[in-house]
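User: Hi! I'm working on a homework problem where we have to compare a predicted structure to a textbook description. Could you give me the structure for the chain below?
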Amino acid sequence: VDWWRMNDSILVNVGTHFDQESSVFLAPRRGVYSFNFHVVKAYNRQTIQVSLMVNGWPMISAFAGDQDVTREAATNAGLVIMEKGDKAYLRLERGNLMGGWKYSTFSGFLVFPL
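Assistant: Happy to help. Predicted structure tokens:
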């Protein structure tokens, strides 16, 4: 794991390519990267949509929209080809997180260089 973020804590950040202030991962080299995220909405009856963004473009998204539960997760994972200097981050595209990102995780790592 190159980096793993849980709520406001960075648990692992090998190479310090994940910036805690901006919550952006900066690719240190060209390659195939694996990303996954798990975003929890709590006590919120609206639908949320979360996207993994690379250089401002959505790569994958996840939804959580069950109106009858107090907690639900929007979860997804995928492989992305990135160039050196590309930026990856999460964006809340729809809804709001009343409790913030408290129980959410976001992680990624280089699968293999190109």
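For your comparison, note the following. The chain has a mean pLDDT of 85. The first strand starts at residue 3 and ends at 6. Good luck with the assignment!
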